[in-house]
Write a structure and sequence with these properties.
The chain is an all-alpha fold. It has a domain at about 55-180. It has helices at about 5-25, 30-50, 60-80, 80-85, 100-105, 105-120, 125-155, 160-165, 170-180. The chain starts with a helix and ends with a helix.
Length: about 180
């Protein structure tokens, strides 16, 4: 099975979800996000399972993978108020600017890349590494789309947030801001 393609399809679903959220707000199409997550997780598990013979146990690989997935899940599902972020769709909202979201507008991307770096260390095949690079680039293109198109339309105060919070890489000022808010 081509897990690279399956994981890539998940990004098409994420784009569809975002466009629907702004343009149509069709309840059936809202499922595109969950379906995309399922495809992305399933493709990742599939790649790991299909390449078990290439597994190279490494303390660094394990630590990086666990760090990446832990903070990815935290930044996407626990650092944000769940109901306002994932349930209240289709209406203007305000940006959540606390914790990791005071450090960077898209902290999940950093942890996503770290997670896949860890997996690449644990199973360093050309297919795995190229797949993880493709998915990381797709993830980066998706957050650029969100930053330029989706979020300015979804959040009343997004332009101001863009002026005060770095796009991806935290600065000393944004790190201090995130600590002051906590």
């Amino acid at each position: 099975m081509n897990y690279t393609i399956i994981g890539t399809i998940s990004y098409i679903l994420f784009y569809i979800y975002d466009i629907n959220e702004i343009k149509k707000n069709n309840k059936i199409i809202k499922g595109a996000f969950i379906l995309g997550l399922i495809l992305q997780i399933g493709a990742t598990i599939g790649i790991i399972y299909d390449n078990l013979e290439y597994l190279k146990i490494s303390a660094w690989g394990i630590a990086i993978t666990i760090f990446g997935i832990t903070f990815l899940i935290y930044s996407l599902f626990f650092a944000l108020p769940f109901k306002e972020t994932y349930v209240k769709q289709g209406e203007k909202r305000t940006v959540y600017k606390k914790g990791v979201y005071a450090m960077s507008r898209h902290p999940g991307v950093i942890f996503y890349i770290i997670f896949y770096i860890g997996l690449a260390i644990l199973q360093p095949t050309i297919t795995n590494i190229s797949t993880y690079i493709i998915w990381s680039l797709l993830n980066l293109s998706y957050i650029i789309f969100q930053d330029l198109w989706t979020f300015p339309r979804a959040f009343d105060d997004y332009q101001k947030y863009r002026q005060t919070t770095p796009f991806l890489i935290p600065t000393l000022k944004s790190i201090k801001s995130s600590i002051d808010i906590i």
